[in-house]
């Protein structure tokens, strides 16, 4: 006799599809936090970049751009780094819950 995979177990737990739905919901929440952090990171990338360039160890270094996209790539890398600063702890919190 084959059991129904959508049926709730007798012990009151969640079925496999309930778990998949819960995982999907938490992944979507984490992606929303990542996207919001990316928007904030786009605004915070330039001040962070300026601060790091003016810091004492990098004060005498010259910056070179070999391709037209180098400046945009650095800017986006800073934005992603700022976004991950918020998204990774939130994702771990979602895993813990």
From TrEMBL:
<feature type="transmembrane region" description="Helical">
    <location>
        <begin position="69"/>
        <end position="93"/>
    </location>
</feature>
<dbReference type="InterPro" id="IPR002033">
    <property type="entry name" value="TatC"/>
</dbReference>
<protein>
    <submittedName>
        <fullName>Twin-arginine translocase subunit TatC</fullName>
    </submittedName>
</protein>
<dbReference type="Pfam" id="PF00902">
    <property type="entry name" value="TatC"/>
</dbReference>
<keyword id="KW-0472">Membrane</keyword>
<keyword id="KW-1133">Transmembrane helix</keyword>
<keyword id="KW-0812">Transmembrane</keyword>
<feature type="transmembrane region" description="Helical">
    <location>
        <begin position="27"/>
        <end position="49"/>
    </location>
</feature>
